[in-house]
Design goal:
Mean pLDDT: 86
CATH class: Alpha Beta
Structural class: alpha/beta
Strand order of the largest sheet: 6-7-8-3-9-10-12-11
Shape: globular
Largest sheet: 8 strands, mixed
Number of strands: 12
Distance between the termini: 49 Å
Number of helices: 11
């Protein structure tokens, strides 16, 4: 008999099914006693139903495991970079953390204005709406994320109107101040998105994200669609705004050089899991996972006389619909052994801030 009830299958077909949460006593659920801790993600999962689950024929459902149990912390004023190949689940994780996508299971704890750690997933719609003022996102494609029928002024001021924060002259003043903060001019206020360059569009998106004075911002590949020269200017702007407003960032990218420049903590993601987490120095100078070593070996070196040892991975990443047994990385891993094909890798702590999921933790 199937473990899914009739109504579970109805919800699956409607796309609103949430797997039951299981309280497991495990160290990854512990929240550090740190007043600077702002966000704590614990065993977060997001699975999509892609086949099966039929109500009539009682077929076994098949899930795409986009995010499959990730855990990390974000401290106040800190930037956590998430890096990995395309399709590894970075953007899905970002949306699940903000509950733009409903997580399948797990916990996302956020420190509210009363300095209490609240599980966002347990909040009702009204409570979550209030918390959203403190959490914002900047999307990858500035052209697609801006309403083409709204002016820059309307786009930036919209959050202030929705949350009834400002109106009238105060609305105009705050909107112009936000534009100036991100390097836009007053005469840009009544331009439409198609009248801006790519960098200017992203500045409009950043100003919109800052409108409600958030404490936490997710940056989903905010510079990947920009030219190199514009990219540097936007990154400098993000760093300046972080210092000024003490913002905490999650910065998602596939460019390791950008991650190294802007991040304090680096999370390396592969097929829905975080295979290595550590400070920038630990991940780039003392990498322990073979996947991390392969990614870092691909970073171009500006000195043409230096020929770094490049690590090439065979094949493509497996499908998250049918991940391999044991360690997800074992079909491409140069050091895999029989245990890697049978058992999931343990989470090994190298230092207080450095974690690796691997059966064979390597040295540099």
């Amino acid at each position: 008999m199937s473990e899914f009830s009739f109504w579970d299958r109805v919800k699956q077909r409607m796309g609103i099914y949430r797997a039951p949460k299981v309280d497991v006593e495990d160290e990854i659920y512990e929240i550090p006693d740190d007043p600077d801790l702002l966000v704590a993600v614990r065993n977060l999962k997001k699975h999509f139903l892609v086949a099966g689950g039929g109500i009539v024929f009682n077929r076994t459902p098949i899930f795409l495991k986009a995010v499959d149990g990730i855990s990390f912390n974000v401290r106040k004023g800190e930037t956590v970079g998430i890096v990995g190949e395309s399709g590894c689940g970075k953007s899905t994780a970002a949306r699940a953390i903000l509950l733009l996508l409903e997580p399948t299971s797990g916990h996302v704890f956020f420190r509210n204005e009363n300095e209490e750690m609240i599980d966002l997933i347990s909040l009702d719609k009204k409570e979550l709406r209030e918390m959203r003022r403190q959490m914002q996102i900047v999307f990858q494609d500035p052209s697609a994320s801006l309403n083409p029928r709204m002016t820059a002024f309307d786009i930036i001021s919209e959050p202030l109107l929705i949350h009834d924060v400002a109106s009238g002259d105060e609305l105009k003043i705050r909107t112009i101040e936000l534009m100036e903060k991100v390097g836009l001019m007053i005469h840009h206020a009544f331009r439409f998105p198609h009248e801006f360059s790519g960098g200017q569009k992203q500045r409009v998106g950043i100003a919109r994200a800052l409108a409600l004075n958030p404490r936490f911002v997710i940056l989903d590949e905010p510079v990947s669609a920009l030219d190199v020269s514009v990219r540097a200017a936007v990154l400098m702007l993000l760093r300046d705004l972080q210092r000024e407003f003490n913002l905490a960032y999650i910065f998602i990218a596939h460019d390791l050089s950008v991650i190294r420049m802007i991040s304090d903590i680096v999370c390396v993601m592969y097929l829905g899991r975080l295979v290595e987490v550590g400070t920038v120095e630990e991940v780039f100078e003392d990498m322990r996972h073979p996947y991390t070593r392969a990614l870092i070996s691909a970073i171009p070196i500006p000195d043409p006389t230096v020929k770094p040892e490049r690590i090439f991975l065979e094949g493509d990443p497996p499908s998250p619909v049918a991940p391999p047994p044991g360690c997800n990385f074992h079909p491409r891993c140069p050091i895999a052994t029989s245990i890697c094909t049978q058992e999931e890798p343990p989470r090994i702590q190298i230092s207080p801030t450095h974690f690796v999921e691997c059966h064979h933790v390597t040295t540099k």
